[in-house]
Specification:
The protein has twelve helices and 29 strands. By secondary structure, it is α+β, with helices and mostly antiparallel strands. The strands form six sheets. Strands 18, 21, 22, 23, 24, 25, 26, 27, 28 and 29 form a ten-stranded antiparallel sheet that branches. Strands 1, 2, 3, 4, 14, 15, 16 and 17 form an eight-stranded antiparallel sheet that branches. A five-stranded antiparallel sheet has the order 7-10-11-12-13, covered by helices on one side. Its cofactor is Zn(2+).
Length: about 650
């Protein structure tokens, strides 16, 4: 008969450990061997789970990073070991082209600006840049630290209508400045007097005098069958039918190629300059630079055989020539420099084999390959900066100034989390005016176009001046303003404290409806207007709201700002305010337990949740203004080589 005591004893081979040595063990007493096995099993399981979590969280950034974002670890770091890192996706990884000429282009563009009754058309240089934000951009300029208030707030000067210095893109090219004046066509006759008609004798005299230049191609008009050449012959001699005929000289052994538009699938040549900072095998140096293992071993084998060595020495520079068509890239040339002196060049012949070749033309990037401000290198995923820092570093290094970058940040603020970490594929494309061929923005420069890609989200907008009120704003491809109708948080530096809904009132002590959202911040923190509107009330509220400001917006929306310590002087009943304008400061007036902003949103007399209600978009262009905007957008897209779907179709220089 098996009892409970016998079953407990059967769990181990050794006798059980008794509490006092005299009584039999109960259910809570086990053998030492079973206890030790259970303990070791738990420790082992914890270690295995820890390793699995580490690989899933930390290792994920190193192993599962997108192929296009791979970059070699900086080998110049002290104590760094030779790099031989393997990458996932080696078979499909396209080469990392660092000298692609389309990254920044400067082009002369015809623009039109209105000057009184005249329209002045002139040529002006513009810069088109495509920036990979994850690249290790180097800039000597300082930029402001991240401050939400600075991003969303609007100064009084910014509230004024900006002056259009660039104008609109003109549809045709002009050689110099042209002034156009448009007047209505006279429907009831013209005030201008018509000159008298020419007599028949005057007509014949003009034809006789200018007959030599009356040609149709290479044939004289007067010699055609429907004109009698003897009618205009002079009495002195016969008409010379050969006079005025032009001769066409055709050079032999010469080919004339037709103009070809450059598209995304067009063939492009680029140079990739790879500095070698320590002795490294040739194939390894190419793999670390982003080339596939097959490409690196194929080209490296030919180079090693011709060089007579398998490794590149410290201080050498490997220059790879690439022919790229779309995502497909092919190595066509490899050159090695040692201390800025040409050592060897291998090039692909017609049969696709590497053979010794002549030294290619010198490239400045070779001499500066080891400079800190040389070619950008994409940083690895776990070293990428915040979105805010990535935008500033890239834009400043590509010639944009701080004011222009701040404008880009303001326009992207409603769609982009600037505190998030950059993703390797994040990019920014911009089109802006400059004053000369240097491609650097000045105070007179204007931003005309931006296309930002962060993760799977893409934000594209165009600058446009509304002809109805001459206001300048930025609109998406459908003519809707990129700016929000209302900001959900009028206290950018505040912290969320309490939401909309039923709650126990902290002072009254019973449950009641909380008809707004509370944002806490230190006393005196600026409060900004959630949108453009008219001040409906600015003063003390006896119902417990303390210093209160009500702003009426379009379409029946009213925003309410309560418990303020003070209200701005220029905010009074009937005053116009703009989105981002400072209207007051955080306080604790009225029924309040501490400094905070109680923000309410009222729609058609009903209080709603400001964080959950679906807000309408900003200003939308209509009618003639929308038609004008679409023409301007199409001209910009044509200049940038984009079709309506965003695919690159051409690139004009």
């Amino acid at each position: 008969m098996i009892t409970d005591k016998n079953m407990v004893r059967s769990l181990g081979d050794q006798p059980p450990i008794l509490a006092d040595g005299r009584r039999a063990p109960d259910r809570r007493e086990i053998s030492m061997r079973w206890l030790s096995g259970t303990f070791l099993t738990g420790i082992t399981s914890s270690l295995l789970m820890g390793v699995a979590l580490f690989a899933a969280l930390d290792g994920r950034q190193q192993l599962a990073i997108p192929a296009e974002a791979f970059a070699a670890v900086d080998p110049s770091a002290p104590g760094a070991a030779p790099i031989s890192t393997a990458k996932r996706g080696d078979r499909i990884l396209s080469p990392n082209i660092v000298a692609k000429p389309a990254d920044k282009t400067v082009a002369e563009v015809s623009t039109m600006i209105r000057d009184g009754e005249k329209e002045v058309v002139r040529r002006q240089p513009f810069v088109h840049v495509k920036m990979a934000l994850a690249a290790n951009h180097q800039t000597s300029e300082n930029y402001p630290a991240f401050d939400p208030l600075a991003i969303f707030a609007t100064d009084d000067a910014d509230a004024e209508a900006p002056v259009a210095r660039t104008g609109t893109i003109y549809g045709s090219d002009v050689e110099s400045e042209v002034a156009l004046k448009t007047i209505d066509f006279p429907l009831k006759g013209s005030s201008l007097t018509f000159g008298p008609s020419m007599s028949l004798d005057e007509v014949e005299e003009n034809v006789r005098t200018n007959g030599s230049v009356l040609t149709e191609g290479n044939t004289q008009v007067a010699s055609l069958f429907y004109v009698d050449p003897q009618r205009f012959a002079s009495d002195a001699g016969e008409l010379d039918l050969i006079q005025g005929l032009s001769a066409r000289i055709v050079e032999e052994n010469m080919s004339v190629s037709a103009y070809e538009n450059i598209t995304k699938q067009s063939t492009e040549y680029a140079d990739d300059v790879i500095p070698v900072r320590r002795p490294t095998p040739i194939a390894t140096a190419m793999v670390n630079a982003g080339y596939s293992k097959a490409q690196a071993e194929d080209a490296g084998g030919y180079i090693e055989e011709a060089l007579g060595a398998k490794e590149l020495a410290a201080g050498d520079v490997l220059r790879i020539g690439i022919i790229q068509k779309g995502e497909e890239a092919r190595i066509v040339r490899a050159t090695i420099y040692s201390r800025n002196r040409h050592v060897l060049t291998m090039a692909v012949d017609d049969k696709g084999r590497f053979v010794p070749g002549a030294e290619p033309p010198r490239l400045d990037a070779v001499a500066t390959a080891f400079d800190d401000n040389g070619t950008p290198v994409v940083a690895s995923g776990h070293d990428l900066p915040r979105v805010y820092d990535g935008i500033y570093r890239a834009a400043l290094s590509y010639g944009m100034n701080s004011d222009m970058v701040a404008l880009v940040v303001k326009l992207l603020a409603s769609n982009v989390d600037f505190q998030a970490q950059l993703k390797p594929a994040d990019s920014l494309e911009a089109f802006f005016s400059v004053t000369d061929e240097s491609g650097r923005a000045t105070d007179e420069s204007e931003l005309l176009y931006v296309n930002a890609k962060f993760g799977d989200a893409e934000t594209r907008f165009y600058r446009f001046q509304d002809p109805d009120d001459n206001s300048i704003d930025y609109f998406d491809k459908d003519g809707k303003s990129i700016r929000q109708f209302l900001l959900r948080n009028p206290l950018p530096n505040g912290h969320f404290r309490s939401g909309f809904g039923m709650r126990r009132h902290p002072i009254l002590g019973f449950s009641r409806m909380h008809t707004g959202v509370d944002w806490s911040a230190p006393r005196g923190t600026p409060i900004i207007a959630a949108g453009n509107g008219t001040v409906e009330k600015a003063g003390w509220d006896s119902g417990g709201y303390g210093n209160q400001t009500l702003i009426r917006h379009a379409n029946g929306y009213v925003s309410s700002y309560n418990h303020q310590s003070a209200i701005a002087k220029n905010v009074r009943t009937g005053a116009k305010v703009v989105q981002g304008q400072v209207i007051g400061w955080v306080g604790t007036t009225g029924l309040s337990t501490g400094p905070h902003l109680h923000y309410e949103l009222i729609v058609n007399g009903n209080k709603v949740d400001p964080l959950r209600i679906r807000l309408p978009g900003g200003k939308s262009l209509k009618g003639e203004a929308l038609a004008t905007f679409e023409k301007e957008r199409m001209r910009i897209d044509e200049l940038l080589g984009k079709d309506e779907g965003g695919n690159e179709v051409a690139s004009k220089q």
